[in-house]
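Lab manual, section 2.4: Encoding a predicted structure.

Procedure: take the sequence of the chain (186 residues), apply the prediction step described in section 2.3, and record the output as structure tokens. A sample record is shown.
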Amino acid sequence: MRFVELFAELNKKGVLELVKDPQKEASFDVVIQGYRHKHLQKVREFMDLLDLQLPADESTPIVIPAYFAIKSRKLWGIAITTRSTLDLIEILRASIDVPQGHATAGLTLDYPPMGLVGQGIRIISSTKRPKRTSLAVKYRRHWFYIDEADQRTKAFFRALRAFWSVSISASADQRAAPVLTIPVSR
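Recorded output:
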């Protein structure tokens, strides 16, 4: 969970970006730059979680290849598997506050309790339109939303969107790629 939080926070601050280079074998590169003073500790923690070293010159941009592959000794960088993206979706789905009427009517799936990664992730449901939302969707007369102040769920969702984008872009045939549609309330 800490990796997801750091990824989202550094991305939001403009320090970490996912960049596509069609000339390279990697699906994407994670580029980290402009971290030397204000964001050094968080970048150091991010790199530690990946078991990677910071460059000796902390003003040097860090470029980490991101592959759709299983990590091997020959591969340097971040290995992302489709399953890891789907696991994030399952964690998000399991965090939904399901209305009792939906559960009783058999409209929902039962998920096991969330593990450590899913702790603190919460999609709230309400019959009334929420006022403070980061994201809200109306479905079957209920609003499902992420509270504007819920930084953990917002960070998790941003990371999920980033990984989903990588999944779609890495697809050999874009027409065959899965589609994630996210309605946003106005």
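Check your result against the sample. Residues 2-80 form one domain.
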